[in-house]
Design a protein that fits this description.
The protein is built from 9 helices and 13 strands. With 384 residues, the protein is of the alpha+beta class. The strands form 3 sheets. Strands 1, 2, 3, 4, 5 and 6 form a 6-stranded antiparallel sheet that branches. A hairpin with a 2-residue loop joins strand 5 and strand 6. Helix 5 runs antiparallel to helix 6.
Length: 384
Amino acid sequence: MKVFEKNSNIFRLLSEAVSEGILIVNHKQLIVAANGSAHSMFGYEEDELVGKPLNVLIPSKYQKAHSGHVNGFIKRSEKRQMGKGRNLYGCKKNGEEFPVEAGLNPLQLYGNSYVMALITDITERKEYTENLEKMVAKRTAQLEEALTAEKELGELKTKFLSLVSHEFKTPLSSILTSTTLLGKYTETAQQDKRDKHLATIKSKVKYLDNIINDFLSVERLESGKVKYNLTFFPLSKVVNEVVYDSNMLLKEGQQILYPQDVDEINLYFDEKILELALSNLVHNSIKYSPENTKIDIRVIAEKEFFTILIIDEGIGIPEAEQKFIFERYFRAGNALLNQGTGIGLNIAKRHLENLGGDITFTSVENKGTEFRITIPIQPLKSNT
């Protein structure tokens, strides 16, 4: 240490112009010299570090291992970058830890061994690197998400084209056949046959019109262009219309059970949306239930919600596929032989959710399904 005291002016002259911290340590790991940058970096006054053990600048959790590293370095006496491949930290006088880089250089002076450490505070660089890594990770995740979405969109388009091809081709073939046969029934006595084919044409055209309306509903939902019309109306009006239309779809022996105590219930809701949801569920119950079964419609008035139950004795939904039932274009494996687009439930649920309602269900395969339409009860509002 006396050597550096004698030559302190030379050390200061050589070191004070350097922005990095310079520490010189003897074989006892005592600091024998330090430049102004080192004092400033570690929060010490001028010359306050001289004579202190090196460990005062090392976080306590690293001190034991660090002493061994320094002793080993002095013995090997070779230049190297300290802590290569590891994160190094210094400790300021106030106990604050900060990341550093240190280059070590052995030197011999008047027969004594010393180590000169060139120390750089890399706090800003480390923060920049960490922020950059976070940005890269975030961007990578966004790209992966976009690629996944693009892949799903491609699969969805393929599924959509296949679905449209199938769902349009079948009714169009029926329309073409019926139209062709109509031309053959020219006699007055064959009017009943003409009526039969005209009914088929009307039915298939209505089916196609419903599909197109579903696709348009999807587009409006996706674009946010849906406008709802909230009004007061009697629940019985919607139920009557749905049941009337559904009666024409009933199979042999099927029966719709009308709900009790529905005439006194008035709702403040979008009438068309409720009709869409209810008709979708009742028509599905008819479609996926065998002959001689019942479709039971019930209404439950609760404190904050009205619940409409649609209970059938149909084929049910396989348990493994129930989590997908509201996904667009999804159709359960046991329903593929029936006509359908897999859009109706998705549209109905999204409309109801937009209005504060919901659709849920419970189902057991081969035993039946219970769907529940939930509608929030709104207080009566005056017209003024």
